[in-house]
Design a protein that fits this description.
Length: 202
């Protein structure tokens, strides 16, 4: 069973951006938010979804696997860290490898940036900044047992399907009880890299 992690409950997100603001206050990347708030069908619905790093477990963090500089480290507890600024070369391989579209490149700094589960907090038992300020509980930090005790009847998934590939993650998504894993992730967009069409997150 999952340990303490983030559980994303899309049905509770109200798009208030409190998580985005709180993330900017994190000491390791003060001033920049590592969480993305996506509006799923802007103009037609108010539905929104916070996107954090899913800390992929199987296959092991595609972003780290494709990093030629070995700048993305994974701790023993499964947290996939943002790129080490002393090693990152800003090549964007990680951006194209992530099926969830999480890593971003700071073009000015030539550096990859992404959520690292507020490791400066979670490694000491504190909740990530985003989960501490979420007014509706769309971002819940704890164990699956704690989540289910607070919200009886919910189910969670840590498996997402992208075409023929299933990705297992360390962060979970709350799903309707009748909709167990895996969650359809859709097909990755095709982007152009060096003049060739390549699957990527677009």
């Amino acid at each position: 069973m999952l340990g303490r992690t983030i559980f994303i409950d899309p049905g509770r997100c109200i798009g208030c951006q409190a998580c985005v603001s709180a993330c900017r206050e994190c000491d390791s990347h003060r001033g920049k938010s590592m969480i993305h708030l996506d509006y799923t069908d802007e103009g037609r619905t108010v539905a929104s979804l916070p996107t954090v790093c899913m800390h992929c477990e199987d296959p092991v963090a595609p972003c780290a696997e494709v990093c030629p500089a070995e700048a993305i480290l994974i701790t023993a507890d499964g947290v996939v860290h943002e790129a080490d600024p002393t090693r990152c070369i800003g090549c964007a391989n990680c951006v194209n490898a992530c099926p969830f579209g999480v890593p971003k490149i700071d073009l000015e700094a030539k550096l990859q940036m992404k959520c690292n589960l507020c490791y400066d907090r979670t490694s000491y038992g504190l909740a990530p900044m985003c989960a501490t300020v979420c007014p509706t509980g769309a971002l819940f930090y704890g164990t699956a047992e704690e989540l289910q005790a607070e919200r009886p009847g919910v189910d969670v998934s840590t498996e997402f399907v992208f075409g023929t590939t299933t990705v297992s993650t360390g962060v979970a998504m709350v799903v309707p009880p009748e909709r167990r894993a895996p969650v359809p992730g859709g097909l990755l967009n095709v982007i152009e890299v060096n003049g060739r069409s390549t699957p990527g997150n677009g």
